[in-house]
Recover the amino acids of this structure.
């Protein structure tokens, strides 16, 4: 999902999130526990020498989950540490992918908006678009990674700054989210959100137990309220809209410091595969190297050119081609995480419900 957000890569958001999580980890775990994890995973260089204890926590939790769900014996000391480790992962994941506009040193989240905003908007538009035959029930299915679910959680208010460290907010094995659309006799639309996941033990049959999902909805006066029991679609849409980008540049948001850190203040051609190259391809409206009257020129590998130099048909033709290509790429990436597994099944029914299902 983040590969479709130029600002995410320009800032190297993952490294920012690890730097945010490291002091919290060091204050939560003892040096002995950090050393134990490092030795267990063979990551002393990363976790101890390079002073990145959260790196060990992240890998240790993944190690535990993968082994446990496959019936492989898990280190007993690691098992005993899990109640301390999972809140650290939750806090990190929700800082990385969630929507926390008021968190310290996190103005970026407010400017870029929720990374799950576009996805949530797609769900709302799906609900708002009636089918010609109203006797059909439609199910829309998305398959996503846990990081994408974390972004979606932020967009719908399931995870906020208040519960960002709650381990229950970490997407679980085969996590499933269901949004039901209901219509009353006068055509008033409302949604009912549900969430659940099966047991993780490999010897126990999979059984999904869905329960109300504590999303947020917003009254017309701007007051948020608990939507776990359901709420009018308009109120749900109002909350999602509050997580939209605040910056005029939207997901192309930048600061000079971000540009400098990404090596994007030079006027030359960015290196292949760099975040600067992706940013210049995706955000041509931003002055190249922050120089007024300068544009990123696709004819020269996105080196900077003046507007006068670029003011000819070959430049515009190249710009159109270059913009289409990244759009296709970004669509493929977003589609893989968000909508690559869309399956529509139509059933004759009289309930006139639509159910997009999001699963991990």
């Amino acid at each position: 999902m983040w590969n479709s957000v130029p600002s995410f890569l320009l800032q190297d958001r993952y490294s920012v999130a690890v730097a945010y999580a490291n002091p919290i980890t060091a204050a939560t775990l003892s040096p002995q526990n950090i050393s134990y994890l490092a030795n267990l995973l063979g990551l002393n260089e990363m976790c101890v020498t390079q002073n990145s204890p959260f790196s060990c926590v992240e890998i240790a939790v993944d190690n535990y989950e993968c082994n446990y769900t496959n019936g492989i014996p898990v280190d007993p000391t690691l098992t005993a540490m899990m109640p301390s480790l999972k809140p650290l992962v939750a806090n990190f994941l929700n800082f990385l992918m969630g929507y926390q506009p008021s968190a310290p040193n996190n103005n970026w989240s407010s400017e870029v908006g929720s990374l799950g905003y576009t996805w949530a908007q797609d769900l709302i538009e799906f609900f708002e678009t009636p089918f010609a035959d109203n006797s059909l029930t439609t199910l829309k299915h998305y398959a996503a990674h846990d990081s994408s679910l974390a972004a979606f959680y932020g967009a719908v208010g399931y995870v906020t700054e208040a519960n960002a460290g709650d381990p229950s907010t970490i997407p679980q094995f085969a996590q499933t989210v269901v949004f039901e659309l209901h219509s009353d006799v006068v055509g008033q639309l409302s949604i009912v959100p549900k969430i659940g996941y099966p047991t993780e033990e490999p010897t126990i049959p999979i059984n999904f137990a869905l329960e109300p999902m504590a999303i947020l909805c917003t009254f017309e006066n701007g007051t948020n309220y608990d939507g776990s029991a359901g709420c009018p679609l308009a109120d749900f849409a109002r909350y999602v809209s509050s997580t939209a980008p605040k910056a005029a540049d939207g997901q192309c948001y930048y600061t000079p410091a971000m540009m400098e850190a990404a090596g994007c203040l030079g006027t030359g051609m960015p290196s292949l595969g760099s975040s600067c190259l992706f940013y210049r391809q995706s955000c041509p409206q931003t002055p190249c190297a922050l120089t007024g009257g300068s544009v990123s020129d696709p004819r020269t590998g996105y080196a900077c050119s003046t507007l006068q130099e670029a003011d000819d048909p070959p430049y515009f033709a190249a710009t159109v081609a270059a913009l289409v290509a990244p759009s296709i790429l970004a669509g493929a990436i977003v589609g893989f995480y968000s909508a690559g597994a869309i399956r529509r099944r139509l059933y004759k029914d009289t309930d006139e419900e639509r159910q997009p299902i999001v699963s991990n």
Observations:
- Residues 321-354 have pLDDT under 50 and may be disordered.
- The first strand starts at residue 136 and ends at 143.
